[in-house]
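User: Quick one: structure for sequence A, then sequence B.

Assistant: Sequence A:
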Amino acid sequence: MNVSRIAILGVALIAGAGAFVLMLSQNKDITPVQIVEPVREETVRVMVSSRDIQRGERLGAEATSWVTWPKKAVQPTFITEDNEAAREDLESAVARSLIVMGEPIVNAKLVRAGSSGLMAAILAPGMRAVTMRVSPETSSGGFILPGDKVDIMVAGGRGSTAPARTIFEDVRVLAVDTLFSENTEASHVAGSNVTLELAPTDAEAFIAARDSGSLSLVLRSIFKPETELQATDRRSSNVSVIRYGRS
């Protein structure tokens, strides 16, 4: 064998051995990869509304459904599948206020069978419900709906020269006849009775004014005026506004 070939072969063997030793030393410095299994999040089944439930509407089986909810995000007011006490008598419960689709059902928005009536339940704490008969002329043409805000004006009646005056401002309308829904699809309701929410002292003054004069309801805009002048600059000079009270 040629001496040069033997030399080349020896160099190749030495280089290969060096590469093998270098590879072994590098493998010792490599940190082994740890496979971490994801932690499975604990969940709870929560009752939610499957459609919009209007105020005064009963909860039926078709109006609610169960969805999976992260347990750490469940509030104490939620109705869960393992809470038998909260699920009792739900079929006969009535919505105290609007419940939108997908919203968790909570007891604070329900009136259960055997508890106070719906009107007593939707009243704000400390407030009173009063009713007055209206006509299209005294109720903004019938466009006053539950949930609207109105001003109450009083006049001396036919033949009276006394100016009309506002006795209550920003009063919430609870119902028109027996309609409680705040989101009714009707554009107007030609009702004959309107139920209003007033403070106890204002309710006394309202009844006195109702029995002694002619009351009218004036529908308020849902938008606040930018300045007070914009809200009053079209007021007639023969109308005096008295901020008697507030609901």
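Sequence B:
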Amino acid sequence: MKNLLLVLFVLSNVVFSQNNYLVEKLNSRIRFSGDIVKMNDEPNIGFIGHGYEVFGLLPQKENVYFGVNSYSALTGIRSGFIVFGVSGGVQKNLFSDWLDYDLGLFLGGGGGSGAPDGGGLMVRPHLDLQAKISDKLSLRAGVSAVKFPSGEINSFHINVGAVIHTHTYVTHNTSSSYKENSNSIFKDIDISMLSMNLFNYSKGPLKTDFEVDKSAPVISLLGVMLKSHQENNLYGIVKVGGAFIGEVDGFMMLLSGIGYELPVNKWLMLDAKALVGGAGGGAVQFGGGLATQIEAGIGVNISDYLFQVNLGNTYAPNGNFQSNHLDVSVGKKFGLYSNSSNDKITVVNKNDVEKEDFSFSTFNRVYVSSGEIDKIGREYDRVFNLIGFEVEKNINKNFSLIAATVWAYQGNYGAYAEGWLGLQYYYSLAKNWKITTKTLLGAGGGGNINLGSGMAYQYALGVQKKINTRWSFIANLGQIRPVSKGNFTPVLVDLGLKINISQLVKK
């Protein structure tokens, strides 16, 4: 049906215009879930799931969705147990418009805190019922299974959850001049690089026999922060980071929450927020993994470029950790196009907007290692596999900024994960072929892999083949190297797919 509408838009006009963008409006959702994963001979793990899923990416399959999800431990004894991966499924009406059934599958990699996760591969099928409460909110409940095929975790249980309904807008460069949209609105999204620094511990931080270890080092995490602005100066926020200073490689935090921004003038603002989520790993005392943060600070906005400093408190309600923290972030504000109409396809005048080229990639990474020894005296696996995700923002036709993460799912390193920030260069080789080079700096750890303090860099040479206007094939060959001390220096091979998610932004 969607493809037919596109054809009708084109055929209904004799004269074509280069002054418009055609925009597809796809149903999307932010999905939260709660699972109690049954464990043998230890307390069960309470998982919280976060995910973003998009419907209609396959032609004429508007009930089929694909997305990304993460699952983090909040209770039990496995703090830092975090899994990241891809999801897909089908959702259809059951008896009435307000009640749906959802049959789906998650595949991902991760683990941590010594859990019996094997190589890290997690499989989670689910069958849920979803009840629509309003146009923005639905509640869910159903049955799901969590299984680590190469490990010892195998649980069948009830899950509960909630969905926030939203939309994704996919932009085409040109269209006919028919039916310009007059309902355009713009929602602000902030994307920032984040340095999170934990210090002045009143509890913890490390797993020792002392409740307060005042000689412990400052723990610094490198990551990304995403804010989605709503009405009345409120916003939703997600923060994710991995340790690169403090000798706690493998320590991670994945938090979400709400915040409030109070403008002082056109370039200065006051800020406050509260977050909750999962954290742990790296021998840090986070108990079951539940983490909370409250913070306040000040920000500067100059031509939509952002600089912000916040001071707050980090606390593990189920663990022996409490500290102050200092967040420093640098980023960019985007006014993303949306509309209030019910039209699946609209046309927007180029005079009112600019097109920002974003893309999202998912790929399989193979690490090929030589004969070095890991932290517990084992020789590194010659070959093991990870699942990877990359978000890319094009600066111009030759350069782009990238943020990426990879998570082990096969081998002896199920708890191993990395997060990266960097720059990529393109060179056009032929009509649909490009050569790429990229350099990234990041943090990684877990699984007894020796990355020193946790900071590392990577470089790679790659190729991209355009399949159609939406999809491309990607391949990379490169190497990982720790910044100091570590001995993990594998060759990397990436193979995957990239989807264009170009967005219109306010001029």
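The chain is about 0% helix and 65% strand. Residues 2-11 form the longest helix (10 residues).

User: Thanks, that's what I needed.
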